[in-house]
Design goal:
21-stranded parallel beta sheet, Pectate Lyase C-like, 4 helices, mainly beta
Length: 363
């Protein structure tokens, strides 16, 4: 059954709540507005459309760290405040319809990521075609304040799952994020400030949490760092990294606090990653009290040699890593313990590793 959630939202009074009925429904994209609550109660599942044309016309977005116009995110808000999504229900992105685009996106992704260095204005970076094959985010907030995401399950979006951009005061609690496709990161605070993620559970097709601030020249132009982010009491069951910073950290990342978490069966535990061409900085990071088990590769990796970039950077501008402290990591069984790799032209400074307990390391 299809449900017209957008009309319900449009007709909602200020400071009102849209409560979805129990049952299984299909929906197109949803645009939220200020001072409203969207409640998805237990027993309600929303399956989002698999028709690509339903996500047109294009919306302003940040695609893997670069501003452009692309397919509309499945849930979207721009320049809004005081929005809550809550309830014990399920948002199902049915992202399988989009996942094969990963193999088709190469030309458009390279073109987009070169756009700032080639002085192409944002207004001319218009995609939203099957030929370009740039997948949208599932839930995206642009320049919003006071966002609350509470106690629902979200699964299998087309690409990044929850993606706040240029936002302030974002609070997430009790979420279950379950994804399987390529680049289906769980939660990506992107050039945001004052973010708290707590008591959430992740099983993802890419990084569970990835803290970013834009990519390369476009991020330098925008100039908005990601700062004051706290992650606590979360469980990471599958993913590329439990908590990652970067590689899109070109606008700067600082004042990050990750603590009292657990990871099982992720590829890596803590991963801070970048490469030549990113510029930017990562500094004032504290990780403490983190239990890990059955980590496929490194329990802790801090590296400026990231090798899986979607596109080749246009410059050699090095990143800067400094003032990073990791303490109280306990890991049983990992492919490797700790990897630290800087660059000759940009040595890492003041990196502190304390109370690291490594059990069996699988070489």
């Amino acid at each position: 059954m299809r449900i017209d959630i957008q009309t319900m939202i449009d007709n909602c009074n200020e400071n009102g709540t849209v409560v979805l009925p129990e049952g299984e429904y299909e929906s197109g994209p949803i645009v939220l507005k200020s001072r409203m609550t969207l409640e998805i109660p237990k027993g309600c599942t929303i399956h989002f459309s698999t028709k690509f044309e339903d996500y047109l016309p294009v919306k302003f977005t940040r695609w893997e760290g670069v501003e452009c116009y692309n397919y509309a995110p499945f849930i979207y808000a721009r320049d809004c405040e005081d929005i809550t999504i809550c309830g014990g229900g399920v948002l199902d992105g049915q992202g399988q319809a989009w996942w094969h685009w990963k193999k088709l996106q190469g030309a458009a992704a390279q073109e987009l990521m070169d756009s700032e260095s080639k002085k192409i204005p944002v207004e001319q970076r218009v995609y939203g075609t099957e030929e370009a094959a740039l997948r949208p985010s599932f839930v995206q907030f642009i320049r919003c304040e006071k966002i609350k995401l509470l106690d629902f399950t979200i699964k299998d979006g087309p690409q990044w799952t929850i993606h706040p951009v240029y936002c302030r005061n974002v609070y997430a609690k009790g979420l279950k994020i379950i994804t399987n496709g390529p680049n289906t990161d769980g939660f990506n605070p992107d050039s945001c400030r004052d973010v708290l993620i707590e008591k959430c559970e992740f099983s993802t097709g890419d990084d569970c949490i990835a803290i970013n601030s834009g990519l390369n020249e476009d991020a330098w132009r925008v100039g908005i760092p990601c700062e004051q982010v706290e992650v606590r009491n979360c469980i990471f069951r599958k993913g590329h990294a439990a908590v990652a910073i970067g590689s899109g950290m070109s606008g700067g990342v600082e004042h990050i606090y990750v603590h009292d978490c657990a990871a099982v069966n992720t590829e890596r535990g803590i991963r801070i990653k970048s490469m030549r061409g990113r510029g930017g900085y990562v500094r004032n990071v504290l990780v403490e009290n983190f239990d890990m088990e059955e980590i496929v590769r490194e329990a802790v990796q801090i590296s400026m040699h990231y090798g899986s970039s979607t596109a080749v950077p246009a410059s050699d501008e090095p990143p800067v890593f400094s003032d990073i402290k990791i303490s109280g990591v306990r890991c049983q069984r990992a492919g490797a313990g700790i990897e630290l790799r800087g660059l000759p032209e940009s040595p890492m400074e003041r990196i502190s590793l304390e109370k690291i307990e490594l059990g069996k390391v699988l070489c």
